[in-house]
Amino acid sequence: MMAVYAHAINFVVLCGFTLLYGVVMDHTSKNLNHTCSENPSDHSANCSYRGLTSVPRNLSHDVRSLNVSDNNIFMLLDKSFVNYTQLETLDASYNSMYLIENETFHALLLLKVLMLDHNNISVLPISLLEKNCHLYLLSLYHNKLKRIPLIFGNNLQTTYSAKNGEDACGCKNLSRFYLAFNEVRLLEKGDFVALRNCSFDRFDLNHNDIKSLPRAVFTDLPAVHLLINYISLVQFQADSFLGNKAIIQVTITASGIRSIVPMNTSEIPRDLFPGITKLYLSRNELITIPKYALDGFEKLQVLDIGRNLLSSLYNGSFCGLKSLINLNLSVNKITSLPRGSFACAEKLESINLSLNDIAVLDPQWFDGSHSLSTLRLYESNIHDIKNIPWNTTNLQTLILAFNNLNSVNNNTFVGLKNLKCLDLTRNHNLVDISVDAFEETSSLEKIIMTDLVKFTMTGSFSNMHQLVFLDMSYLSSRLEINSRGQFSHTSALRTLNLSSTYIKAEDLVQFKSNGSLFSGLVSLHTLKLQKNLFYDFHHVPNAFTPLWNLHELDLTDCRIPQIDSGIFRNLTSLTDLLLAKNLIKIIPAKAFQDLQNLRNLNLTSNYITVIEKQLFSRTSSLQYLYLQNNQISTIDSFTLLPTSLKVLIIANNPFTCTCQLAWFREWLDKVNTTIDKRSEIRCSSTSFKSLRNQTIWSFHPKDYCGVNIYLIVGVSLAIVTVLSLSILTYQKRWWLNHKLFLLKLAIIGYQEITENQVPEDYEYQLNLMFREDDEWWINDCMKPFLQGRMPHLEHIVFGDSGLHPGSFYLNAIYDVIENSYKTVLLLSNQSVEDTWFMTKLRMAVEHMNDTKLEKVILIFLEDIDDDNLPYLVRLLLSRNKPYLLWVFDDEDGQELFWAKFEKNMRANREMNNVIPV
């Protein structure tokens, strides 16, 4: 009641002073010539920085957003906004305002945002905003309010108005209420009674001069997040929040709190206990936490007491916190803790003790913390861990980075059988890690050991079957590897980081056994080797052979001078290859031939001068190619560049803009690829004179590279001569082929490697497979030939009629193929479109591959277009396998056909899979 009377007295005084002023201002405001800018499209008006002393009256009546900030307005009257009933946003901040009349905003029934910050308001009328039902943001930053304003009416008045049917809805939609940077010194329980019907997401009392928080002072405050930072609170009274279930999060940081005063929960009904789940008390001056300090905060899950002056705790400090999950005690002065310090908080999962002064870590501090899964001890000056078994059996993450540990042995982590993540980063004194250091933590999935002084691999990881991530990067001295087999059973490892460990290429492969350091890493997905010393990289072609599942290989800045053509041959899953900042000059044409899944290739900042024409012929998935900062002067015609490219960077190369580069310049215009850093792609001093030091886009080949008449005439004559000879040769082709065939037999004879078996050793000497439509050729051509010239062939299968009856069709086909000395398939345009015929062809080829004998002969009955020729047939032809072409109405051609057929029937040659050049 005292607060209400104080507000009333101040308001009466100000109203009396304003009566005369209101009459004068009402007259002058009507004649005010405002210079506001209005935007009809969004119904807004901007009147800021206009030197106004009152709100303009002659703006559009449908204005929805009005900005009168940064003016000289020092009063808002009842009539200031009566013409703007559609107003939703009002910004009156940064004025000199000290008085606002009672009904100033009553006409603004649609008002949502009201900003009155940075004024001189010391008191506000009761019920000032009781009719503004849609208001959701109210800002009163930087004013001179000394109490919580009753601007929504006191609770009795609001209730009375509702009973009488008046339009008094209070602050039911108000979400954010900002009272920071005022002069509030005292909070009393009745200050929030009028706010019972509100539902604040955020209630901000930061930067006031509040010195105490009385018992149950926030009972009526319906705020989710309460901020009271930067106040002058000496004690934190735990009972200040009694009776409040609405406040979920409380932040009281940098407020000078020196002690916590527990509440006597034995005398308080449980239904009055606070509902707070997150409490932040960081950057205060707490020295200790008393026993049962926050008893009664049964729903508290997060407690932050970091950045205080804590030097000691009790083993009952956190008793009563039945729901506590996350505890932050970082940046304090803790040197030691009592045994079982956190046992009372039975659900505690995470403790942060980083940046304290713990010299010797004692595992007994955490006895009884059966739910503890994460323990952070980052930069806490730890130099030793007592060899006492850990009883925190559920601990999964242990952060010991940036300490001064001297050693890690078999006893260091005894009891941590469920530990999954261990971080030992930058323990500069840690030079002694025993071979059995991780035997007690066989469940480890992630080990981080970056930035150590020295480390020797002694097989510590070879039996870690669950290890997924291992980082040993940035050692101060060379990584010592005392033997191979370091990862022989580390089959789950997916990421290995050995960057900047000063290893050499010779460390990757054992030359005597030719075994790789990475043997056993069958699941490795990412391998980082950047900033090492691989001067002899081309001498270790088997380094990555075991890594068939590798997706990312980082070899950035490794001093690599050249690449062996087979170094990446087994990395068929590789998607990212990073070779930037090396010494590479030439890359062999076959270096990337097996990288069919490669999407990202980074060759930035090397000394590459030439792009081999076939370098990218087998990288059909390449999307990102980085070639900037090299020595490429030209790219030869017909160089195969991937059509899948999305991004290409070729900046800062000394391109010679002459006719030799013309095709590539035209390709850049046609390709559907993003060319980044276009302005840095320039012509070198060896270019055409007018193009020197110009961007390559200034080079238009049509303007510089005209038609060469001598070349055209010469080429034309050559084409005519070749055509004439070709026509003559074609007309006599069969005669020439026959004579050449006979000449070859006469000169070099006929020798070939054959199998030991002869046609008589097979059940069938000849198997003819054809489509029914092509049976006429068998009857008219093949059968007369066999009867006349090869009568010794008695067991012959003619098509499907010769298959074993009663068997499944495919089984019968396979049985005939397997037991035939030769299988002949007749190809025509119709047969290659017949699914069953192509199935027979595939089965015959598979059998040929299994036996390694050329037992299949293809006979073309007619010409088949390349577009219609199946891939399997083209593959056989490319490997120079036996095939014959039947010619009609040409006796010489037919004679040569039958001569070749007889030759192919004499023996089964061993397969020669070398593709002819």
From TrEMBL:
Membrane topology field: Single-pass type I membrane protein
Transmembrane spans: 709-730
Family listed: Belongs to the immunoglobulin superfamily. AMIGO family.
Species the sequence originates in: Strongylocentrotus purpuratus (Purple sea urchin)
Name of the featured protein: TIR domain-containing protein
Gene3D superfamilies: Ribonuclease Inhibitor (3.80.10.10), Toll/interleukin-1 receptor homology (TIR) domain (3.40.50.10140)
InterPro entries: AMIGO (IPR031283), Cys-rich_flank_reg_C (IPR000483), Leu-rich_rpt (IPR001611), Leu-rich_rpt_typical-subtyp (IPR003591), LRR_5 (IPR026906), LRR_dom_sf (IPR032675), TIR_dom (IPR000157), Toll_tir_struct_dom_sf (IPR035897)
Main location: membrane
Keyword Nuclease among UniProt keywords: no
GO biological process: cell adhesion; signal transduction
